[in-house]
Amino acid sequence: MSKLRKSSKQKLYAGCIGAGIVGIIFAGYLMVNIHQMNEVRKQAEVEAELKWKVYEQEQRTAKKGWAVVRDISPGEQIASNDLKGIKVPGSQAPSNLLANKSEVSGTTAKIELKKGSVLTSSMITADEPTPKDLRNRELKVVVLPNSLKSGDEVDIRIQFPTGQDYILLSKKKISRLEGPIVWVTLNEQEILSLSSAIVDAYLHKASIYALTYVDPQFQPKAIPTYPPNAQVLALMNSDPNLIHIAEQKLSKQLRGSLENAINSSNSVISTPVERSLSEEIAAQHAGATIENPTSGIDVTRNEYENEQDHQEQTKILTQGGSSDPYAK
């Protein structure tokens, strides 16, 4: 019995020791785990406090902006009910962010705007939407100033041999310039007026020329005074190719006059090109010959072609029932 009791006591002691060791290990694990959790909590609190400070800073420096509440197509007008006020963090706000609703409402979208797009000045324009009938027009029949350059604004006028002078196109920006050829943008009405003027110039020996503005930013747009000729419009309707024929003839005449002016200026350095060109055009209109100042030789320019053109013009005018629609 004594041996059994002794053995039981030893087992009990061993169990207690084992349980104590396990308890110590578990307690140590709990202590380490609690310490780690405290560290994580402290770190999370620090990060949360830092984020809150950043948020408060952003709220103090946030800029007001406007976003669209629906998709808007290019060229479409932005209405007041298309806008929603937002706040953009100062660190993320673009320099051209629009803060005032009045700066946005009523403007036109330059590009496609998706719902939620934050508006900047580069995305919109205060100008009127581009008209649907606006087109680029190449002009080869206009006498241009020597100092003309791309980007200048001009009035394009037509002058008849009788001295009548009309404003054909008003304050047109030269979008492109290549030698004697210019490009401008015209609407449908201006295209029709120009077509009428080109045929008029061909039939009645008129000249189409350009004048630049002195200060286009402050000078208002002139009012066009050229009255489209009803007879010419009727001729154009009866013969759709007439405008192309007239433009080709005028372009050819202008090119010939320009070449003569260049040759004349090369021969006589003191003679301005503009004066030579004007004299050449005037001589063509009058059907006269030009005397070369250096050689004293009379030069007749394409008499046969001029005679053919004259006969063709007379025929066209006779078909229209009048030889001088601008006669008073």
TrEMBL record:
InterPro entries: SAF
Residue spans crossing the bilayer: 12-32
Name of the protein described by the UniProt record: Flagellar biosynthesis protein FlgA
Feature: compositional bias, Basic and acidic residues: 304-313
Keyword Transmembrane: yes
Region Disordered: start-end pairs: 304-328
Residue ranges of domain SAF in the record: 63-125
UniProt keyword annotations, A-Z: Cell projection, Cilium, Flagellum, Membrane, Transmembrane, Transmembrane helix
